[in-house]
Amino acid sequence: MKLNGWNVREIGIRDFFATSTISASEWLSRSYGEWGPDSNLTKDNAWTEFLKAFEAVSVSPGFEWPLREEPRVAYDPIDDTHYFIFKIHNNGMTFLVSRRVMSEVPGGLYGSSGN
Hints:
The chain is built from two helices and eight strands. By secondary structure, the protein is α+β, with helices and mostly antiparallel strands. β5 (72-76) and β6 (81-87) form a beta hairpin.
């Protein structure tokens, strides 16, 4: 599904990826130029990016409230930008929200057993 320029992909239950991601609140609190590859982002357009990604995932089939944890942000080296990870209620699905269609599950996003 694509909305607002964001592709939403349901990838099943995923856990154990905190070491390869940062929280959305940490990502949004960064100062201009601290986004690494996304150094052209400002606080305003980082918030806009997050809100558009959140809107895209929240209207996706299979998305339910509540979120299991705060959304996470990760780096996509293929298109040199960020993507978002949303986990819904306990034992629920995990959604990737990215600019490109991600046919693979990025490294570091392990299944619920840790592998």
